Amino acid sequence: MKPRIKTPQVSLRKLVPSALTVAAICLGLTAVKYALDHRPTEAMALLAGAAILDALDGRAARMLNATSKMGAEIDSLADAVNFGVAPAFIVYATLLEHNTSPLAWIVVLLYAVCIVLRLARFNAMLDVEGPAFEKEFFTGMPAPAGAIGAIGPLAAKMQFPGPWWDSHWGQVFICIWLIGVSLLVVSTVPMRKVHTFAIPPNMALPLLALLAILVAASVMYGYIVILVIIVAYVLHIPFAIRTKAWLRAHPEVWDDKPKEQRQARRAIRRAQPRRTDRGQRRSTARLRLRRPGPRR
Predict the structure, then answer these.
(1) Which of 1, 237, 267, 291 falls between 20 and 30 A from 77, CA-CA?
(2) Cα 97 to Cα 261: distance, rounded to the nearest angstrom
(3) pLDDT tens per residue across span 140-156
(4) What is the pTM of this model?
């Protein structure tokens, strides 16, 4: 009698991350359906839900020790759908539906393709070894931020409605905006990862209170919150560029914690001569003046 071969069993616990990813895909595609039905508010809400599930599936996989190659591939495909295809269709169905120019569809395709290329580059760079500080930055705008940026004009139209959005210049603005977001997505501009920010312990409670206010505001004034997030993210880019450039020039602090890096940066800044002092010296030398005091 041949021994019975046991079929390997899969624990339901290991399916939780993939289930979250599949649910995110369903929300993203349903957002497209609501956009086609001219219900942009519900479409944006479903897209936000897909983004939340996308943020949770990876953490759930690590917490449950359920990471797998298949799960990583599903997550990458979900990002392409939720942050590339879905926002592209939402923008086209709600903002560019009356635009008869083929340029409108080309711009939408450009955005979706750039999101896919950005995800492919991210996956290819996972195995690339580099300095430790580079793990604190994204290369180019991440896909979720790109999706928020893409629907920014829709949020602005819902908050500030008017015939301008359907005018020639309104359509031009939407196309230029989407092209700009697409270029940021595939660019090499550094963007700071949110989880790398550190705050003093005494700022934890105020930050939680601010988060509660932000959640309440997102329910009552969702369009304004989207626009504020976009503005804040764009404003952080110059600081991210400067911070990465400084870290690249100071390898001695690569292994330090963020707090120690900030202290070293302040110390180096204090040790450098001020620009006003250098300017005064140049002016004094140019006018051949000397400070008062006994001649030597």
Answers:
(1) 237
(2) 50
(3) 899 999 999 999 999 99
(4) 0.81
